[in-house]
Prior knowledge:
alpha+beta, 13 helices
Amino acid sequence: MVMKMLSERTERILKIIIDEYVWHALPIGSEAILQKYDLGVSPATIRNEVARLEKEGYVLRRHISGGGVPSDKGYRYYIEYLVHRMDVPVDEQRMISHLFHQVESELEEWTRLTASLLARMVQSLALVTFPKAVSSRFGRVELVSLQESLATLVLLMQEARLRQQLISFDREVSQEDLLAAARELNDLLKGLTWSQILAYKGEFTALAGEVKRIVVDIMVEEDAANYEEPYIEGLRNMITQPEFAASKDMIGIVDVIENKGTLRALLPGSVPWDGVQVVIGGENREDALKGCSMVMTLYGIPGEVKGALGIIGPTRMPYERAISAVNYLSSIMSNLVSEIYTGRQ
Length: 345
């Protein structure tokens, strides 16, 4: 987003208003800024700068006599121009490294731990999806007869993803026929993506060709979902925030969070591998989250396997802390995923 640049003095006052509101959840007025910060300018200048920020939509005043609070536009300017890269403190890095060495060497345990750590570090709600292959590959298929023209198809993809589906035929099909079709497909398709299967020029028997088309449909559906369902930690952190503690808005937020399918649909699809995406307030696609911000990034191996992790909290979020925590834990998860997938090759 391209925004008009503010003067250095105006930026400093905007940053003061945002920092004060983030940490104290209270609006701050011109007089309080004057008393608390030595800006080397007159009280009238500070009042004029705050009035300008209010007029241009960076700051909102909820009451005529009250102080200002940041708007979504103010937060966006803050994110684009005023947030500085901050590393996770070294002692905290050591603690996190120790915790990862304490849990079992399994991706599921690491994913859960990452969600728990993120929630604790930023005191917001954290979500982490299990890593998913960008393009699933055929592992093997099994076909089990249930009735004369009905069978169960079990498809195992190389990424340890298993899908089952009932399939019906317009004729009687024996278990022997099903076994032969499964052997044929397992011999010819192992390691192929659905697009490679479609491009395969070899001949198939009628039954194997029929099952192949169903397999492709399953794999296309699997790849269409960008992310697995997320692990979620820290809902209590959200509920206890001043903005939501006594707000009916929290009901809608909880509904979105508990519906993991909806939450998964909100995850970014275009985040660069080396960047963090921050979605602020009204930028959210889901109406219930208009009072929230999301700080998200990807982890994994570019072009091969990816997961997403991030924070959901009020727009009054410690963005520098959130961005540094998300960045750091994504680098850890990327390294772990890389070690596992390299070891499998």
